[in-house]
Amino acid sequence: MDRRTLLKSIVGGATLSSGLATPAISQRTAARALRFVPHADLANFDPIWAPAQIARNAGAMVWDTLYGVDDEVQPQRQMVEAEEVSSDDLIWTFRLRPGLKFHDGEPVLAKDAVASLNRWSVRETMGQMIKALENELTAVDDRTFRWVLKKPYPRLLLALGKTSTPACFIMPERIAATDPFKKISEYVGSGPMRFVKDDWVPGVKAAFEKFPDYVPRQEPSSWFAGGKRMLIDRIEWIVMPDPATAAAALQNGEVDWWELPTLDLVPLLRKNKNVVVDVVDPLGNIGGLRMNHLLPPFDDVRARRAILMAMSQEDYMRSVVGDDESLWKPMPSFFTPGTPLYNEDGGEILKGPRKLDTAKRLLAESGYAGQPITCMAAQDIPNHKAWGDVTEDLLKRLGMTVDFVSTDWGTVVARRANKSPASQGGWHMFISLFAGVDGINPATNKWVRANGDGAFPGWPNSPQVEAEVAAWFDAKALEEEKSAVRRLNKAALDHVVYAPLGFYLGYQAWRRNISGITKGPLPFFWGVTKTV
Q1: What are the beta bridge partners of residue 65?
Q2: Containing H/E element for 206?
Q3: CA 46/CA 316 separation, integer angstroms
Q4: What residue ranges in 28-160 does DSSP mark as E strands?
Q5: What is the CA radius of gyration of the chain?
Q6: At residue 5, does pLDDT exceed 60?
Q7: Residue 262: exposed, middle, or buried by beta-carbon count in 10 A (0-12, 13-18, 19+)?
Q8: pLDDT tens digit string along 344-387?
Q9: Ramachandran angles phi, psi of 91, nearest 5°
Q10: Which is nearest to 385 in space by CA: 394, 376, 373?
Q11: Would strands 285-291 and 275-279 be described as parallel, antiparallel, or unpaired?
């Protein structure tokens, strides 16, 4: 069966070219199923092994978290019923809510939480910090576990409840025992939706069904916090990498919600009275070009600085948002514009006219001698594709030989974990982005970390950067935090942890019969309803 035939079957008998739906399902059934076009294919569904937004977004339905941040980025209890903290802040005792159940019918126990925390902490920068301070992490009884530290860690609950990847999802002990550098093959959680593995066709669709035994909290839902009440029985993620196809499907009612409409199609969508288009995340997104600090030439800071000196953030942003000045901002910083810790210390290298000739000299001084530079850019995500084109042009203008890898996002996520030379499946550069909420401070901003093997792919290693991260964690007041982050921003730009491409706002689009969509950094499906 070819992909187009599969897509026809997925959308309930709808014909993609004509938009005429056959009466394959009743109105009641149609109202209980939501068809969603995600920003990428769910090719790798292990949100710990693959700390990508697409795995996190799907994972938020399938797995639950001990705590969850609300829309003020404050952690609230989620799976945890209560916690006790010793007077010296070294002993944390957590008690799980009663009645929590996994999708296979087994109860959620303290040992599951302990195993999940152990796996998560290997791949997450805050988790790594906590592990370095750990004396012991043990299950006390079926509903209680204890974390004993050598030194207080005031942001522990934020670590357990944040939305940034990898989120601290709780899995059954047998699954959480999987090596964190190997993918899980069983997708059992305790969240409000269960993953329908038999319906998963990578590159085409994924499906989730309401878990009837899920008991939501009583508080109103707010991002990862509160009661996750599912009002939809089934959610189907339909992969449509071609924006024109997705736009036609949305207008014809063949899909209900499109996560990442391209800017050139927004005017068309707005003319359709049955479609709503809006900026759903006011904290926006931040583009990034990651360079591999382990391989020449980018193991030399002069080569990395050459990229910053020559690149134009305006070129990158306009390739995605066009001429709408209200949708983007230059960003000589590693922190989200408009938030308390934003600063531009050390950002001069990204300002003013671009210095291509000086950048070429720096590149030569780094020892670059024409070897191919492997740059990966996902072609199934429009902004990644556009930024890839800008990057390829930039590298060629710098006189570099480009091995441009046009591939899908799932392949980028898998290959970026490879530390081997490019000729053996490694890489030199890749394009990506993260949500603005992840860039508000050093706790959630894993991209700015420079702790070597524990860092995000690219593996920067800068003791000075890490010292300033530690200074922020130790700060007692906002002014101390700001001072530490100013020093951190300068140190990270001097070291060129990565190349920030700029800040921008993106749209989402949905049918007018869909309600309950919440503004935030990812699609929150709880509270969403559909009428027919």
Answers
A1: 169
A2: strand 205-210
A3: 30
A4: 33-37, 67-69, 75-77, 80-85, 91-96, 134-141, 144-149
A5: 23
A6: no
A7: buried
A8: 999 999 999 999 999 999 999 999 999 999 999 999 999 999 99
A9: -115, 115
A10: 376
A11: unpaired
Average pLDDT (14-22) is 37
Under DSSP, the state recorded for 107 is B
**Are residues 254 and 19 in contact, defined by beta-carbon separation less than 8 angstroms?**
yes
Residues 6+ apart with CB under 8 A from 232: 32, 33, 34, 210, 525, 528, 529, 530
CB 48 within 8 A of CB 167: no
CA 240 to CA 407: how far, in whole Å? 15
Q: What is the C-alpha to C-alpha distance for residues 134 and 356, in angstroms, rounded to an integer?
A: 48
DSSP code of residue 406: E
* Size of the chain in residues: 532
| Alpha-carbon gap, residue 281 to 490, rounded angstroms | 28
- Dist. CA 405–CA 155, nearest whole Å: 39
Give a three-class secondary structure readout of 496-532: CCCEEEEEECCEEEEECCEECCCCCCCCCCCCCEECC
Q: What order of strands is seen across the sheet that includes strand 429-435?
A: 328-329, 499-504, 285-291, 429-435, 372-378, 401-407
* 219 CB neighbour count, 10 Å cutoff: 13
User: Which residue's entry shows tokens 């024109």?
Assistant: 244
Contacts of 357 (CB under 8 A, 6+ apart): none
Q: pLDDT > 70: what percent of the chain?
A: 94
DSSP state of 252: T
Supply the angle between the helices 382-397 and 301-310 in degrees, to the nearest 10: 110
Question: How is residue 414 written in tokens?
Answer: 């898998």
State the pLDDT confidence band at 50, using cuts at 50, 70 and 90.
Answer: confident
Please state, in angstroms and rounded to a whole number, the distance separating the CA atoms of residues 513 and 143: 42
- The answer, yes or no, to whether the previous bond of 297 is cis (omega within 30 of 0) is yes
Report how far residue 435's alpha carbon sits from residue 289's, in angstroms, rounded to the nearest whole number.
15
Q: How far apart are the C-alpha atoms of 138 and 114, rounded to whole Å?
A: 7
Residue that has been written with the tokens 């671009």 in this structure: 354
For residue 469, give Cα distances in angstroms to 74, 279, 353: 20, 32, 31
Instruction: Return the beta strands (E) in 317-467 as ranges.
Output: 328-329, 372-378, 401-407, 429-435
> Residue 8: its pLDDT value, please?
44
Cβ-based burial of 392 (10 A; exposed 0-12, middle 13-18, buried ≥19): middle
